Please model this.
Amino acid sequence: MIRLWKPVVLLLLTMAMPALAGNGQPSMWEMNMQPPVTEVAEDIYSLHNILLWVITAISLFVLGLLVYVMVHFNEKAHPVPSKLTHHTGLEIAWTLIPALILVFVAIPSFRLLRLEVELPKPDITVKAIGHQWYWSYEYAADQNGGFAFDSYMLSREEAVKANQPALLAVDNELVLPAGKNILVQVLGADVIHNFAVISFGVRMDAVPGRLNQTWFKTDKEGVYYGQCSRLCGTNHAFMPIAVRIVSPEKYAAWLVEAKKKFASADSATQVAALPVAAQ
Ligand SMILES: [Cu+2]
Model:
């Protein structure tokens, strides 16, 4: 009994503190998804909540039916079994009602799918390339970019020193502006990786030789963390994604700095050498 109170208190605390959930990263004892910061992520969250109510109602209804059958139709309560095998009304009902539930679920689901898949006119295009085991990013030359860099996870000591989350913080963040449509071209350099940032509702396979595209737009500045979400080898767990969303002014200033910082030849050749067939 004494041992039980600790998890119970923790569970109650957890339920009372969704407001404390970390933005852009997982937090301890979090029950729900990370707070969404794009329209797509918000829609994913609300569809998830709708489905939760639907499946809860269905499960409770089925449970109720089972209990009813056990109580009313056991041998003691109902010694002479009914010979009833068909009931037209019932059969129509149990076909029609599930079909209507599916239609009800399909409407927000297809709406969300369209929002995710239909790429809006991009303001900025970046390329995210998954490697064993790090990411590299390429900024388009015609958008004041024309440079590329690698992004490696910080060691635990480095992350703690920089006051950043361990296993998520990286040396070079993907910096992008708020309020713009960002198109991310996702590629794999060696095996299949996956570019996933939960708060953006973004999850896209990085396949060698294939150009996949996804997009996001957020007005909330901050750092949002993601992880490679396709098993890609020994260090799969150690190639996080860190996206820093800044104001468009700060972004313009960062581009000038980054162009100087990442002007080295080696990262540029690495990206150019990729065996990529455009779609
Ligand atoms: Cu990977």
Observations:
- The beta strands are 124-131, 134-139, 147-151, 174-177, 182-188, 193-197, 202-206, 212-216, 222-228, 241-246.
